Amino acid sequence: MIVITAPTGNIGRRLLSLLVEAAPGEELRVVVRDPARLPESVLDRVDVVTGSHGDAETVDRAFAGADAVFWLVPPDGSVPPDQAYRGFTRPAVRAFAAHGVGHVVGVSALGRDTPLAGKAGLVTASLAMDDLIAGSGVAYRALACPSFYENLLEEAGSIRERGVFTDTVAANRKAPLVAVADIAAAAAGLLLDRSWSGTGSVPVLGPQDLSPDDLARIMTAELGRPVRYERESLGDLRSTMLGYGLDETFVEGMVEMKRAKDEGLDSGVERCPRAGTGFAQWCADVLKPLVTAEAVDAR
Fold it and tell me: Is the pTM of this model over 0.90?
């Protein structure tokens, strides 16, 4: 049996769909706060445990009889980074041991082998979560991911209205990026082929490193409208996030992560032979329909 946490999120819903299609004989269980958010098409294929996978009683029920678990910590800006990652994960680690779970695949971050790993805010907290899981005795693979293409979806309105997207890194800073569909595909492969053992990281990268200026050039071509990059200062990012009422230490963790990425946290990772989704293709398939739909709605 495979247990999927966060099955209605960007990665989890794609993973669930892949597993339902690729493994008709595999028992699947999901842990979800709101079962109504699950697609009707999968309800007859999954066992549903309702609750938070950060809750001890919920994961105790969810992991009983499980061979493998997909682990994803949902973002929580209301608590400090260590609590958001390791604190949330501790009940699951105890349940892994109690129920003899053999394999766990988790979503984590790049940067472990760099000098920046210990001062990268949310990434540092995520790597500490990996260590906690790895120390539980399960076979563990951390999917080491860079920033997601999908982060740009939050700026679809700005791209449509002003032709602008923002971040805090230098305009010419090249770094890997990845589509969430590729993360889901990597997770599915590991969960279905449980012949691996031990602990380790699996980088999940797009096919090439891209800078914000590269992204602007490709979006301009694919969207058929001028798009440019505006760099935001770390101070402005901090002020904006604090204005949302987020935990101050969580905000500082985000700022530290952004600073580390601008200093090369995600760089220098060797790509596996399997190429991921290209950014131009992602723009055409995912971003363009959203920007166009917003443009239609605005008229």
Answer: yes
